[in-house]
Amino acid sequence: MKTLYKILLLAALAAPAQQIKAQNSYYFPKATALDSKIPTPEQFLGYPIGSYFTRIEQVNAYFRELARVSDRVHVQTIGKTYEQREQIIVTITSPSNYNKLEQIRQEHLNQTDPAKPVLSSNAPIIVHLGYGVHGNETSSTEVSLLTGYYLAASNDAETQKWLNESVIFIDPALNPDGRDRAANWHNAYHSFPPVGDPIDKEHVEGWPAGRTNHYFTDLNRDWLNLVQVESRNRIEFFHKWYPNVQIDFHEQGTNATYYFEPTPKRHESPVIPQFLYEYQAILAKYHAKALDDIGSFYFTKENYDNLSPIYGSTYPKFFGSVAATFEQASSRGIQQESSNGLVTFAFTIRNHLATSFSTIRGAVAEKTGLFKVQKDFFKYALEQGQKNTAKSYIFGDSKDVNLTQKFLGLLLQHRIKVYGLTDNYSQDGKTFEKGKAFVVPSAQPNFLLVHSIFEENILRDSIYYDNTGWSIIHAYGLKYAKVPTVIAKGSEVGNVSLAKGLIEGDRASYAYLLNYSDYNASKALYKLLIRNVLVKTAFKSFVVNAGSGKRSFAPGSLVIPVAGQTISADSLHKAVSDVAAETHINVLAVNGGFSAEGIDLGSSNIKAVRKPEVALAFGQGVTASEAGQVWFLLNQQLDLPVTKIDLSSFARASLKRYNVLVLPAGNYSAWDNTIIEKLKNWVNDGGTLITFQTATAWAVQQGLVKEKLVEADFANRGGRGDIPPPAPKDAKDAATGPGTTRAANSSRPIGNEEPKKEKQQRLNYARQEDVEGSRRINGAIFQADLDITHPIAFGVTSRKLFINKNGPTILVPSANKYATVAQYNSKPFINGYSSKLNIDRVANSAAIIAAASGNGEVVLFADDPTYRGYWLGTNRLFLNAIFFANLLNGGGGFGAE
Questions:
Q1: Residue finishing a domain among 382, 403, 423
Q2: Strands 800-805 and 511-514, how do they pair?
Q3: Which parts of 593-700 are beta strand (E)?
Q4: Residue 241: which of 355, 82, 62, 105 has the closest Cα?
């Protein structure tokens, strides 16, 4: 491969000098001293930047070539994506700085300690340029090539100053898999000459498009959650340096111009100090001048959220970095017509290149102030932690060790200080056990991130365009407490420690028992089923006598009988032992079936679990993010090979080989009555259908279940994945909508009632954004009451269920009084932003319904239980639906009335 690149390079070096000069003059109009020994991207790649879309392999190869020929450039690999593409970081600085890079790093880390002095103005400033977190925002990765080239080749005085007074990190593609998906699309449909018509296929990517990673996750929403491997690799590098300035390069709609921060004050975080935001205006003057110099239009202070640590432009702010989003109007191809004229790919690249240089220019010029801002930030954070009402946060569940350790691991990845609990502690009816729980003190320099993970923010603005409720502790559903006092803490915890699971009592002659309260219990269940082990689940609790005393087993506990297996007792013991070790869960061996309390092990209330064969609706019409989340969860948590079926393939697909079908949110209006009848028959024959959000609304409207929607469902537009209902079938449906009813607290008439005439309201045009924005439900946290006796809730020990509600579907509680698995509280709002009207609409509605249909079951989620891959408190309910829903019908009192 290296030899091939050398041959291509030699050939490209022969490119006409006039052609190279023309491109350099466009991108570097003021460049006067570029080293001819440094190959330009065009010389290396064989085409001018802006005429093709460069694949990640080529990007990485070019930076390695720069590192080979220049002592200013260095490349390191920080990880690989799910599709095995390299994630690299390019370090560019003077040779003298690089020779003492570790010393510079250690000195810079002192910035996080409020007790240590601020860095000297002689120290280099740390600048991080992050390109292309959204794979189909394609200009920025091309910009990274030009930025690297210029910093390697330029010998002018300003560049020398930059190299001497800064350490510049370039992440050329924060989303390599999405980048190549987009690049391949645009290259495949590139016309010669290019076509600017917006409707041309080059500009209209097919599902799922290139924005997201392999599992269709928006990596710009994963900085706090750290669900995806790319994010975990990137965050590890971030915490080695804490850059003073970090830029996240994006693209926006083709008809826009260019955006850079500051954002509106109303979109700023309520916890980040104002002085950090104020510094945006200082750096903004450098960006404004750079764009003025090339005549590019721009805007600031109008748009974009700037409050949540889920974003790449905001997360660094929680560590004292003056971080920002840059947004360039996208050509989405080589060129595209817009209201501002023809937008070319080269033009989009040039704008981002100009602000890349203005970032470095401003950082070097303002480095003394930037050092002070970062030092003052950590002082401020520590002071806020000391003043905080909660002096400590305790978390941990002795019955759910894997979830506890998973949450601990997340905190440690964010470099939050965590300590062991020295003594048992009780508060609010919760008991935390020494050795099984942990303490997070508020008084620490990373308090603002601690606050974001454990506390609620009640926001007032109506026009946030994304998730407003992001506290991780609610998402995990893990037992925790806010403690008003400083708790005695043990040693600081530095790593996750999971004991190898084992069989207590060694070999069983009767059965093996596994409590289902651990988050990894579903993983253990599936691993046993694919080993052809007969596994049963208990619908009622029981207590057995064990060598160590009585042991309690809650509903959902797994019973693995020795008798009745298709494998030998020795093979069974090995299978159980291996699964216990792999999932870090202890299993109890018992030699008799007579329980000390509760049901015996031969009870008919202990039912055999079938191995799930899962199909997932995929393709055009399905909300890609939700489909990706299900795919990710089943792959990464269960090791389950889910079959992904395009909506267009359902007509010819045989559903007989599947016993579970998942419909994420989306538009299923393309399915005709033949497919709908096919689904009904499949469910009636014993299939389990699981639906999310708008797919739930669709299932209700198509009569797949006899449940009902709250009338406000589709009247409330906004939020992710909003799909209008199918067209009404007749005049009656047009007036009332099929399957709708009035919410208990709704004042809007529906059904056969005569609608009341509402007074026409007249509002000022300028209020439109605020008023209409308040109608959205897009990522606030609501609380529901969970029936923890229901099999869909097996393993959950608290009735308090926190749900991220980010869509308009609202369900009426089921007429079957046993079928509403979770129901929103009368005062459900917990965190984020929601209008009072929407809170009232959600109140007392159903969050989850398990509805019988023939011999099968339909599990309706009003919301997305797999939300962004980190809402573990609800995704375990989704997994339970996969395993246990078929056991509901006609059993345990959960069938149809």
A1: 382
A2: unpaired
A3: 597-598, 606-608, 614-618, 643-646, 660-663, 688-692
A4: 105
Q: What is the pLDDT of residue 770?
A: 75
Together in a domain, 552 and 629: no
What is the reported pTM? 0.91
How many residues would you count in the chain? 897
φ and ψ at 169, to 5 degrees?
Answer: -105, 135
Number of domains in the chain: 4
Residues 430, 524 within the same domain: no
For residue 332, the model assigns a pLDDT of 96
How many whole angstroms separate alpha carbon 197 and alpha carbon 201? Answer: 9
Q: Quick check: is 757 in a domain?
A: no
Give the domain extent around 535.
Answer: 503-608
* CB-CB contact of 856 with 886 (8 Å): yes
Identify whether 765 is part of a domain.
Answer: no
Beta-carbon contacts of residue 480 (< 8 Å; ≥ 6 apart): 393, 394, 395, 396, 454, 473
Distances (CA, A) of 853 to 474, 704, 706, 881, 896: 33, 8, 9, 15, 8
Coil/strand/helix, residue 691:
strand
What pLDDT score does 31 carry? 83
Q: Give residue 890's pLDDT.
A: 54
The residues of the chain scoring below 70 in pLDDT are 1-21, 462-465, 712-760, 890-897
Q: Is residue 894 part of a domain?
A: no
Other CB atoms within 10 A of residue 238 CB = 22
Task: Identify whether 285 is part of a domain.
Answer: yes
CA distance 244 to 235: 15
| Residues whose CB is less than 8 angstroms from the CB of residue 566 and which lie 6 or more positions away in sequence, other chains included | 532, 534
What pLDDT does 2 receive? 46
